[in-house]
Inverse folding.
């Protein structure tokens, strides 16, 4: 007697496509996130003062790890990998923190080694707590995560500006001198041209998903034409080459950096959890706590191994979740094929070196959209928060302020102890700590909706007047003490 496996037991994400379609859809996923993967190594490499072959190594290493992490997450092994169509890439969430660590630990490759040490410890902590993370997620409601994501985008905006203008001061013969080409019209014009190209391509349905990547290509071609870039950036890069483990030296460990990075890892785990749940809903498959834990363990293992291969923490890319919803392609094997392409790109320094053709102004023009999108995503999350009859507005206001302070006044915390400076100088860390603590204070330790939230959390007068008008129109009454209007009782 032959038994037939019920159709219900076949998971949508296990769909097998033809080899051509598998590779094609995989490439589509890679193109949708490629700009994000290369941006983080470029930012951190620039902060550490790297250039040429060293910067190429960072980019190649990021591609290599992203590909390997994607394969692990999609195909999975016991206890590792959610086995969902999730693309893993280098996380933006850690950028401002890593930049702060580099600046507070001597800069250069030494600062980079402190970053790697902090990542290793923080990722191991994340790996250990992954099975219990469901208990921690409740401390990261939308009012917290939305604030943090908004600060991430705002913190990265100065990076885009510096890509366009260059540094005000440069080192010449060991001395710091003003940069004569700082903010010149040619560079600003090139950045605005790139931005315009990205916006036009975003308007066209067929190219909207690739607008940033295609904008970088068009902007780079324009830079080559006007002499702002040249193929000499490729240097003597080899066609094939395995990333050298610990190419910048062994990791170094500093308490403040580790604490700061651990906070970032918690944020990354929140983002990954949200993406796992979101893609499960899009695909139409069951995602239980065990599957979430497997996905988080894969995420954290990839992040812990990242410093060995000279790169940074990995996370699930949310834009690829949207791509699954848009295309309806649910096969995790297609995404795994894309991961294999990323891995191969990471094994070819000459292909990774092509990124060095992209001049700073072109990156900056695209960065305005890229980083602005991160901030806008945070605003979108905050728009779903309930601000009526509570102090959530206070949480957002104070946390945003602490997150932006290091951006507008970088030396604000310089008189404090070094370990504190490392944490507070990162906008993401400061916003995370403040928002979590305030959420605990207002919404967890003292649960319930206060009858009279603080005056700074009250609705603006126009909103109150609008609510009064709506209630009166429904036949209700407005109390004299200006508290919440009372609706009329429903007519039976």
């Amino acid at each position: 007697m032959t038994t037939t496996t019920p159709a219900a037991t076949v998971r949508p994400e296990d769909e097998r496509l033809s080899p051509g379609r598998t590779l094609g859809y995989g490439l589509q996923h890679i193109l949708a996130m490629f700009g994000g993967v290369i941006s983080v190594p470029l930012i951190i490499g620039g902060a550490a003062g790297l250039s040429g072959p060293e910067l190429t190594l960072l980019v190649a290493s990021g591609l290599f790890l992203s590909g390997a992490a994607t394969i692990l997450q999609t195909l999975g092994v016991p206890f590792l990998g959610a086995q969902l169509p999730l693309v893993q890439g280098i996380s933006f969430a850690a950028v401002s923190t890593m930049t702060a660590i580099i600046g507070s630990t001597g800069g250069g490759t030494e600062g980079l080694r402190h970053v790697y040490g902090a990542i290793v410890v923080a990722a191991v902590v994340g790996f250990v707590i992954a099975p219990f993370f469901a208990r921690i997620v409740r401390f990261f409601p939308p009012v917290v995560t939305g604030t943090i994501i908004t600060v991430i985008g705002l913190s990265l905006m100065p990076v885009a500006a510096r890509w366009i203008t260059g540094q005000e001061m440069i080192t010449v013969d060991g001395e710091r001198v003003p940069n004569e080409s700082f903010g010149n019209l040619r560079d600003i014009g090139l950045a605005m041209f790139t931005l315009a190209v990205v916006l036009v391509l975003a308007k066209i349905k067929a190219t909207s998903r690739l607008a940033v990547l295609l904008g970088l290509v068009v902007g780079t071609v324009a830079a080559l034409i006007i002499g702002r870039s040249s193929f000499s950036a490729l240097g003597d890069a080899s066609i094939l080459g395995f990333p050298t483990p610990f190419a910048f030296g062994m990791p170094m460990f500093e308490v403040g950096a580790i604490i700061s990075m651990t906070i970032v890892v918690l944020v990354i785990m929140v983002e990954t959890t949200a993406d796992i749940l979101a893609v499960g809903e899009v695909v139409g498959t069951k995602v239980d706590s065990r599957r979430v834990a497997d996905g988080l363990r894969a995420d954290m293992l990839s992040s812990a191994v990242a410093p060995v291969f000279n790169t940074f923490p990995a996370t699930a890319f949310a834009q690829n979740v949207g791509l699954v919803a848009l295309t309806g392609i649910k096969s995790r094997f297609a995404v795994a094929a894309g991961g294999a392409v990323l891995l191969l790109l990471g094994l070819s320094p000459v292909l990774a070196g092509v990124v060095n053709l992209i001049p700073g102004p072109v990156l900056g023009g695209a960065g305005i959209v890229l980083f602005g999108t991160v901030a806008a995503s945070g605003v979108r999350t905050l728009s779903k928060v309930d601000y009526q009859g509570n102090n959530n507005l206070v949480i957002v206001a104070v946390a945003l302020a602490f997150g932006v302070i290091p951006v507008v006044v970088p030396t604000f915390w310089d008189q404090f102890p070094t370990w504190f400076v490392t944490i507070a100088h990162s906008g993401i860390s400061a916003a995370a700590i403040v928002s979590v603590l305030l959420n605990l204070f207002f919404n967890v330790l003292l649960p319930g909706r206060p009858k009279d939230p603080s005056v700074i959390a009250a609705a603006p007068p126009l909103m109150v007047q609008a609510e009064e008008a709506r209630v009166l129109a429904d036949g209700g009454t407005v109390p004299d003490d200006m508290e919440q209007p009372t609706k009329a009782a429903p007519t039976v």
